[in-house]
Amino acid sequence: KVVAVIMVGGPTKGTRFRPLSFNTPKPLIPLAGQPMIHHPISACKKISNLAQIFLIGFYEEREFALYVSSISNELKIPVRYLKEDKPHGSAGALYYFRDRIMEEKPSHVFLLNCDVCCSFPLQGILDAHRRYGGIGTMLVIKVSAEAASQFGELIADPDTKELLHYTEKPETFVSDLINCGVYVFTSDIFNAIEEVYSQIRDTSSNYQSATRSVPADFVRLDQDILSPLAGKKQLYTYENKDFWEQIKTPGKSLKCSALYLSQFRQTSPHILASGDGTNRKPNIIGDVYIHPSVKLHPTAKIGPNVSISANVRVGPGVRLISCIILDDVEIKDNAVVINSIIGWKSSIGRWSRVQASGDYNERLGITILGEAVTVEDEVAVIGSIVLQNKTLNVSVQDDIIL
Ligand code: GDD
Question: What ipTM was predicted for this assembly?
Answer without folding.
Answer: 0.98
